[in-house]
Amino acid sequence: MVERTLSPDGKSEWTGSEWVPVGSDVQHTSGANVFTHQKIVDSVIMGDLTSQTIVQNSPEDMAKAMVMALEQMGFSGNIQNSNPSNQQISGVKNLLKAGDELTSRGVKVQGSTDLKLGNAARLTGRYQAALDSYQRALQTFRAEGNRSGEADAMINIGYVSLNQGDAGNAYENFRTAQAIKLELDEKNGEADVILAMANLALTGNEYDQAQDLFSQALTIKESHADENGVAVALIGLGNILETKKEYQAAQMHYRQGLIIKRKQKDLEGEAIILANLATVAEHLGNTSDAQRLTNESVAIKRQIGDRRGEAFSHIQLASQAKQRGDYIEAERLYKMALKMKKKLSDLRGQSDTLNLLGVFFEEQDQFEQAEHHFNESLAIMRQLGDRQGEGIALFNIGNTHLYRNQLESAAERFEQSRRLAKTVNDHEGHSDALIQLAAIAEQQQNIPQRQKLLTEAASVLRQNNIAVTGWLQENGF
User: Fold this and answer.
1) Are β-strands 19-21 and 5-6 bridged in parallel, bridged antiparallel, or unpaired?
2) Cα separation of 284 and 245, whole Å?
3) Domains in the chain and their CATH numbers?
């Protein structure tokens, strides 16, 4: 066997017939070509995500292998905004390294490849890497005069801005992309922008606007027989309708999305929709359906190794156990979900589960335990910079103080919650905090202040086109 010679830059080795990347496992065969068994290893389960034998005579072949791996992992289109599976998450890191290696060698990859790399990075939380890939794609498309590709790159750059909380930059990129798609008369591409704008509206809690945009996108996607786009729009509409407590309508949209996901054999998407349907069934009082749907979702998640999804299903099962009055089982399932979230380093998931545990103990008048969990959630929300989540945690802590008649500290927490909710346009959170401050005023026998706060709470909802229901409505506000 020929002893390899290292290149001056330390990146290649001489095999006796050609230069190859350092560390390649080269298998010599008869003929002119050298074949490399290229493996991309899953760093979590140590399995092979893909194993392709390719002609390895140039970096361009490495680029082709990388594209094949991306497509096998599900990153096939220019625009993607669905949650990645565990398999996608675990394999992305090595693909991004391969992309960096090609870039460092000066290899010019296709703009569509950079978009796929960007999607892989963005959907797994690697926002700077995603932005780098999208910017390269944008430059490539502009140099080629590819206006459609340019718009696709801008849509994805907008999504990165949205992920990072920069709604202004997201809006600017989406609007520019929409103008290009309109100029090119690309209706299906325009629908991709509309879906992006719908997600932007959701971020700002503009539910009516988001619903209108998802509906527009759905009509266009259906006319172009774009099943994946139809499913995205249906699920988005289902989420909004569920938030607005229109459970029958949400159920209908989820079921339509489920049909598409099953047709596409998208197990990950099927499991997510089944979980959504289970939540809706709970709200509709169909407890047996809720448990059946949750168990179906759990079975799929275990089949595909989706630990994150399985943890969420444990939370659903805990809620169902609580409704049955089985508090021991509910507590066990909540704590099991929290343990899984910690193992997955899912901070947001941990915070959500801690809030649910806090409410669980609060409902049993175990206020010190409840406050302990709410404080842990608060710390995580502050770490993540999630001001709405921070406001929710403070509201919950305020309740534990109010129930123990610690009025001064309760009022302080509710006021902090009110200010945060107002800052992030969480109108319902703003109104809820005012109602609790009114409850404190009542205990302090300050009836004029109570009336003023409740009137303001109702006004906040009406001014933002949110129906005044429940206690406020029943008491004439």
Assistant:
1) unpaired
2) 10
3) 376-477 (1.25.40.10)
Determine the Cα angle at 274 with ends 269 and 279, to 5°.
130
DSSP readout, 61-73?
A: HHHHHHHHHHHHT
Residue count (the chain): 477
The DSSP secondary structure of 217-277, one letter per residue, reads HHHHHHHTT-HHHHHHHHHHHHHHHHHTT-HHHHHHHHHHHHHHHHHTT-HHHHHHHHHHH
Number of Cα atoms under 13 Å in the Cβ half of residue 349: 22
Torsion angle, CA of 204/210/211/212, rounded to 10 degrees? 140
Contact 309, 317 (CB under 8 A): no
What number of other Cβ atoms are within 10 A of residue 126's Cβ?
A: 17
- pLDDT 10s digit of each residue in the chain, 477 long? 445 555 555 555 555 555 555 554 433 333 333 332 333 333 333 333 333 333 344 445 555 555 555 555 555 555 555 555 555 555 555 566 666 666 666 656 778 888 887 877 776 667 888 888 899 889 999 999 999 999 999 998 998 888 777 888 999 999 999 999 999 999 999 999 999 999 899 888 888 999 999 999 999 999 999 998 999 999 999 999 999 999 999 999 999 999 999 988 888 888 889 989 998 998 898 888 988 998 888 888 878 777 777 787 888 888 888 888 889 988 998 998 898 888 878 888 889 899 999 999 999 999 999 999 999 999 999 988 888 889 999 999 999 999 999 999 999 999 999 999 999 888 889 999 999 999 999 999 999 999 999 999 999 998 888 888 877 877 777
